Amino acid sequence: MVRSSSRGEPSPGLWRREAGTVMRRAGALPQRAADSGAVVAEFRVVPAPTEWAQHAHRLHELVWVRGGTLTSRVGDRVFTVFEGHGLWMPAGVVHAGRATEGARFHSAFFAPDRTPFAFGEPEAIAMTPLLVSLLTHLSRTDLDEAARLRAEAVVFDVIEPSEHQLALRLPGDPRIDAIAEALLDDPADGRSLEEWARELGTSDRTVTRAFRQSTGLSFAQWRQMLRVHRALMLLSDGFDVMSVSEHLGYAQPSSFIAAFRRVMGSTPGAFFGAVAASGDVRNSVSGGENAGLSA
Description:
Layout: E1 22-24, E2 39-45, E3 50-55, E4 60-66, E5 70-74, E6 77-81, E7 85-89, E8 95-99, E9 104-110, E10 123-126, H1 129-138, H2 145-158, E11 167-169, H3 177-185, H4 193-200, H5 204-215, H6 219-236, H7 241-247, H8 253-264, H9 268-277
Helix pairs in contact: 1-2, 4-5, 6-8, 7-8
Protein backbone atom coordinates (compact mmCIF):
# COMPACT_ATOMS: atom_id res chain seq x y z
CA MET A 1 0.00 0.00 0.00
CA VAL A 2 3.00 2.30 0.13
CA ARG A 3 3.81 3.99 -3.14
CA SER A 4 6.45 2.31 -5.26
CA SER A 5 9.27 3.80 -7.28
CA SER A 6 9.82 3.07 -10.96
CA ARG A 7 11.88 0.04 -9.92
CA GLY A 8 9.06 -1.35 -7.81
CA GLU A 9 10.71 -0.68 -4.46
CA PRO A 10 8.61 0.77 -1.63
CA SER A 11 9.05 4.47 -1.08
CA PRO A 12 10.63 5.03 2.36
CA GLY A 13 8.69 8.18 3.12
CA LEU A 14 5.08 8.79 3.93
CA TRP A 15 4.44 11.49 1.40
CA ARG A 16 4.47 12.15 -2.31
CA ARG A 17 8.06 12.26 -3.55
CA GLU A 18 9.24 15.84 -4.09
CA ALA A 19 10.64 17.04 -7.40
CA GLY A 20 14.43 16.99 -7.38
CA THR A 21 14.69 14.21 -4.80
CA VAL A 22 18.15 12.61 -4.74
CA MET A 23 18.01 8.82 -4.55
CA ARG A 24 20.79 7.01 -2.71
CA ARG A 25 21.26 3.26 -2.53
CA ALA A 26 22.42 3.12 1.09
CA GLY A 27 23.77 5.23 3.90
CA ALA A 28 27.53 4.70 4.04
CA LEU A 29 29.45 4.27 7.27
CA PRO A 30 32.05 6.94 8.11
CA GLN A 31 35.52 6.00 6.93
CA ARG A 32 36.76 6.20 10.54
CA ALA A 33 34.21 3.62 11.75
CA ALA A 34 36.58 0.73 11.19
CA ASP A 35 39.38 1.91 13.45
CA SER A 36 37.90 4.48 15.87
CA GLY A 37 36.46 4.00 19.35
CA ALA A 38 33.01 2.80 20.29
CA VAL A 39 31.27 5.90 18.88
CA VAL A 40 31.89 7.66 15.57
CA ALA A 41 29.86 10.80 14.84
CA GLU A 42 29.54 13.07 11.81
CA PHE A 43 27.13 15.55 10.25
CA ARG A 44 26.36 17.01 6.85
CA VAL A 45 23.83 19.34 5.23
CA VAL A 46 21.37 17.69 2.87
CA PRO A 47 21.28 20.11 -0.10
CA ALA A 48 18.21 18.51 -1.72
CA PRO A 49 15.38 16.18 -0.62
CA THR A 50 17.14 12.84 -0.24
CA GLU A 51 15.95 9.27 0.00
CA TRP A 52 18.00 6.25 1.03
CA ALA A 53 16.94 2.85 -0.26
CA GLN A 54 16.47 -0.04 2.13
CA HIS A 55 19.71 -1.04 3.83
CA ALA A 56 21.18 -2.16 7.14
CA HIS A 57 24.39 -1.36 9.04
CA ARG A 58 26.75 -3.61 10.96
CA LEU A 59 26.84 -0.90 13.66
CA HIS A 60 24.05 0.64 15.75
CA GLU A 61 23.07 4.03 14.32
CA LEU A 62 21.66 7.14 15.99
CA VAL A 63 20.38 9.82 13.61
CA TRP A 64 18.95 13.26 14.30
CA VAL A 65 18.31 16.40 12.28
CA ARG A 66 18.22 20.15 12.70
CA GLY A 67 16.41 22.53 10.40
CA GLY A 68 14.24 19.83 8.86
CA THR A 69 12.83 16.36 9.38
CA LEU A 70 13.72 12.77 8.66
CA THR A 71 11.30 9.93 8.09
CA SER A 72 12.46 6.34 8.37
CA ARG A 73 10.53 3.24 7.42
CA VAL A 74 11.13 -0.03 9.25
CA GLY A 75 8.81 -2.78 8.08
CA ASP A 76 5.25 -1.57 8.59
CA ARG A 77 6.24 1.40 10.78
CA VAL A 78 7.23 4.92 9.78
CA PHE A 79 9.12 7.07 12.28
CA THR A 80 9.20 10.86 12.05
CA VAL A 81 12.41 12.39 13.42
CA PHE A 82 12.19 16.09 14.23
CA GLU A 83 14.09 18.76 16.14
CA GLY A 84 15.18 17.67 19.60
CA HIS A 85 14.70 13.96 18.95
CA GLY A 86 16.72 11.20 17.34
CA LEU A 87 16.15 7.66 16.15
CA TRP A 88 18.19 4.69 17.31
CA MET A 89 18.47 1.99 14.64
CA PRO A 90 19.89 -1.31 15.92
CA ALA A 91 22.62 -3.00 13.92
CA GLY A 92 21.27 -5.29 11.22
CA VAL A 93 17.78 -3.76 11.08
CA VAL A 94 16.69 -3.07 7.50
CA HIS A 95 15.41 0.47 7.07
CA ALA A 96 14.96 3.23 4.52
CA GLY A 97 14.81 6.98 5.00
CA ARG A 98 14.05 10.41 3.66
CA ALA A 99 15.46 13.78 4.74
CA THR A 100 13.99 17.14 3.79
CA GLU A 101 15.94 19.71 1.81
CA GLY A 102 18.39 21.77 3.84
CA ALA A 103 18.28 19.54 6.91
CA ARG A 104 21.47 19.24 8.93
CA PHE A 105 21.72 15.48 9.10
CA HIS A 106 23.66 14.08 12.07
CA SER A 107 24.58 10.47 12.64
CA ALA A 108 26.53 8.52 15.23
CA PHE A 109 27.55 4.88 14.90
CA PHE A 110 28.04 2.62 17.92
CA ALA A 111 30.12 -0.56 17.86
CA PRO A 112 27.80 -3.28 19.27
CA ASP A 113 30.61 -5.09 21.09
CA ARG A 114 31.67 -1.89 22.89
CA THR A 115 28.24 -0.41 23.67
CA PRO A 116 27.11 -1.34 27.21
CA PHE A 117 23.39 -1.18 26.46
CA ALA A 118 21.07 -2.35 23.73
CA PHE A 119 17.78 -1.16 22.27
CA GLY A 120 16.46 -4.21 20.47
CA GLU A 121 14.02 -2.20 18.36
CA PRO A 122 14.15 1.22 16.71
CA GLU A 123 13.75 3.77 19.49
CA ALA A 124 13.16 7.53 19.61
CA ILE A 125 15.96 9.15 21.63
CA ALA A 126 15.87 12.46 23.51
CA MET A 127 18.60 14.61 21.96
CA THR A 128 19.41 16.68 25.01
CA PRO A 129 21.94 19.54 24.72
CA LEU A 130 24.45 17.45 26.70
CA LEU A 131 24.11 14.42 24.42
CA VAL A 132 24.36 16.57 21.30
CA SER A 133 27.45 18.34 22.65
CA LEU A 134 29.13 15.05 23.51
CA LEU A 135 28.46 13.56 20.07
CA THR A 136 29.67 16.78 18.41
CA HIS A 137 32.83 16.49 20.50
CA LEU A 138 33.26 12.89 19.36
CA SER A 139 33.01 13.96 15.72
CA ARG A 140 36.46 15.55 16.08
CA THR A 141 39.37 13.72 14.48
CA ASP A 142 42.05 14.96 16.87
CA LEU A 143 40.87 13.36 20.13
CA ASP A 144 43.34 11.11 21.87
CA GLU A 145 42.18 7.73 23.13
CA ALA A 146 41.75 8.81 26.76
CA ALA A 147 39.62 11.83 25.84
CA ARG A 148 37.50 9.74 23.51
CA LEU A 149 36.90 7.06 26.14
CA ARG A 150 35.84 9.67 28.72
CA ALA A 151 33.34 11.26 26.33
CA GLU A 152 31.97 7.89 25.26
CA ALA A 153 31.43 6.86 28.89
CA VAL A 154 29.28 9.95 29.49
CA VAL A 155 27.32 9.32 26.27
CA PHE A 156 26.49 5.84 27.53
CA ASP A 157 25.29 7.35 30.82
CA VAL A 158 23.04 10.08 29.41
CA ILE A 159 21.44 8.51 26.33
CA GLU A 160 17.80 7.67 27.01
CA PRO A 161 14.50 7.14 25.16
CA SER A 162 12.30 10.11 24.32
CA GLU A 163 8.87 10.45 25.87
CA HIS A 164 7.58 10.87 22.29
CA GLN A 165 7.82 7.47 20.59
CA LEU A 166 6.09 8.73 17.46
CA ALA A 167 5.75 5.85 15.02
CA LEU A 168 2.90 5.42 12.58
CA ARG A 169 1.98 1.81 11.84
CA LEU A 170 0.97 1.27 8.22
CA PRO A 171 -2.06 -1.04 7.89
CA GLY A 172 -0.88 -3.37 5.11
CA ASP A 173 -4.40 -4.82 4.95
CA PRO A 174 -6.05 -5.22 1.51
CA ARG A 175 -9.41 -4.32 3.00
CA ILE A 176 -8.26 -0.78 3.78
CA ASP A 177 -5.20 -0.24 1.58
CA ALA A 178 -7.11 2.19 -0.64
CA ILE A 179 -7.99 4.35 2.37
CA ALA A 180 -4.42 4.46 3.63
CA GLU A 181 -3.12 5.26 0.12
CA ALA A 182 -5.54 8.15 -0.29
CA LEU A 183 -4.72 9.65 3.10
CA LEU A 184 -0.97 9.27 2.62
CA ASP A 185 -1.35 11.09 -0.70
CA ASP A 186 -3.70 13.74 0.73
CA PRO A 187 -3.97 13.96 4.54
CA ALA A 188 -6.72 16.57 4.10
CA ASP A 189 -9.08 13.98 2.59
CA GLY A 190 -12.10 14.34 4.86
CA ARG A 191 -14.20 11.37 3.78
CA SER A 192 -15.83 9.66 6.74
CA LEU A 193 -15.52 6.01 7.62
CA GLU A 194 -19.06 5.46 6.35
CA GLU A 195 -18.26 7.16 3.03
CA TRP A 196 -15.16 5.03 2.61
CA ALA A 197 -17.12 1.86 3.36
CA ARG A 198 -19.69 2.72 0.66
CA GLU A 199 -16.96 3.51 -1.86
CA LEU A 200 -15.18 0.22 -1.18
CA GLY A 201 -18.42 -1.76 -1.23
CA THR A 202 -18.02 -3.01 2.32
CA SER A 203 -19.43 -2.25 5.75
CA ASP A 204 -18.23 0.38 8.18
CA ARG A 205 -17.86 -2.42 10.72
CA THR A 206 -15.36 -4.18 8.43
CA VAL A 207 -13.35 -0.99 7.99
CA THR A 208 -13.37 -0.36 11.73
CA ARG A 209 -12.25 -3.90 12.51
CA ALA A 210 -9.49 -3.80 9.86
CA PHE A 211 -7.97 -0.60 11.28
CA ARG A 212 -8.10 -1.94 14.83
CA GLN A 213 -6.54 -5.26 13.87
CA SER A 214 -3.74 -3.85 11.71
CA THR A 215 -2.81 -0.63 13.54
CA GLY A 216 -4.31 -0.85 17.03
CA LEU A 217 -6.13 2.42 16.35
CA SER A 218 -9.57 3.39 15.11
CA PHE A 219 -9.88 4.93 11.66
CA ALA A 220 -10.26 8.41 13.18
CA GLN A 221 -7.26 7.93 15.49
CA TRP A 222 -5.05 6.63 12.68
CA ARG A 223 -5.93 9.55 10.41
CA GLN A 224 -5.27 11.96 13.27
CA MET A 225 -1.87 10.36 13.92
CA LEU A 226 -0.97 10.55 10.24
CA ARG A 227 -1.92 14.24 10.14
CA VAL A 228 0.25 14.97 13.16
CA HIS A 229 3.21 13.26 11.45
CA ARG A 230 2.67 15.52 8.47
CA ALA A 231 2.20 18.56 10.73
CA LEU A 232 5.54 17.94 12.44
CA MET A 233 7.25 18.03 9.05
CA LEU A 234 5.48 21.20 7.94
CA LEU A 235 6.01 23.02 11.24
CA SER A 236 9.68 22.04 11.25
CA ASP A 237 9.95 23.49 7.74
CA GLY A 238 8.68 26.84 9.02
CA PHE A 239 4.98 26.85 8.11
CA ASP A 240 2.69 28.59 10.57
CA VAL A 241 -0.18 26.90 12.38
CA MET A 242 -2.88 28.41 10.18
CA SER A 243 -1.19 27.22 6.98
CA VAL A 244 -0.68 23.75 8.42
CA SER A 245 -4.27 23.47 9.62
CA GLU A 246 -5.54 24.44 6.14
CA HIS A 247 -3.15 22.04 4.43
CA LEU A 248 -4.37 19.17 6.62
CA GLY A 249 -8.05 19.88 6.08
CA TYR A 250 -9.06 21.38 9.42
CA ALA A 251 -11.85 23.96 9.29
CA GLN A 252 -10.26 26.05 12.04
CA PRO A 253 -6.73 26.28 13.47
CA SER A 254 -8.22 25.56 16.90
CA SER A 255 -9.36 22.15 15.66
CA PHE A 256 -5.86 21.34 14.47
CA ILE A 257 -4.33 22.56 17.73
CA ALA A 258 -6.71 20.34 19.72
CA ALA A 259 -5.85 17.31 17.57
CA PHE A 260 -2.13 18.00 17.92
CA ARG A 261 -2.51 18.27 21.70
CA ARG A 262 -4.33 14.92 21.86
CA VAL A 263 -1.42 13.16 20.14
CA MET A 264 1.60 15.10 21.43
CA GLY A 265 0.35 16.23 24.82
CA SER A 266 0.77 19.96 24.17
CA THR A 267 -0.08 22.62 21.62
CA PRO A 268 2.22 23.15 18.61
CA GLY A 269 3.48 26.41 20.12
CA ALA A 270 4.27 24.84 23.49
CA PHE A 271 5.78 21.75 21.88
CA PHE A 272 8.16 23.62 19.59
CA GLY A 273 8.80 26.18 22.29
CA ALA A 274 10.14 23.38 24.47
CA VAL A 275 12.28 22.19 21.58
CA ALA A 276 13.60 25.71 21.04
CA ALA A 277 14.57 25.91 24.71
CA SER A 278 16.82 22.87 24.21
CA GLY A 279 18.72 24.24 21.23
CA ASP A 280 18.55 26.26 18.03
CA VAL A 281 15.62 25.58 15.74
CA ARG A 282 14.64 26.65 12.29
CA ASN A 283 10.92 26.70 12.88
CA SER A 284 8.57 29.25 14.34
CA VAL A 285 5.02 27.94 14.51
CA SER A 286 3.60 31.42 14.18
CA GLY A 287 6.03 33.17 11.90
CA GLY A 288 5.15 31.93 8.43
CA GLU A 289 7.19 29.90 6.00
CA ASN A 290 10.92 29.94 6.56
CA ALA A 291 12.88 30.93 3.51
CA GLY A 292 16.00 28.84 3.97
CA LEU A 293 18.81 27.42 6.02
CA SER A 294 22.36 28.55 6.40
CA ALA A 295 24.91 25.78 6.28
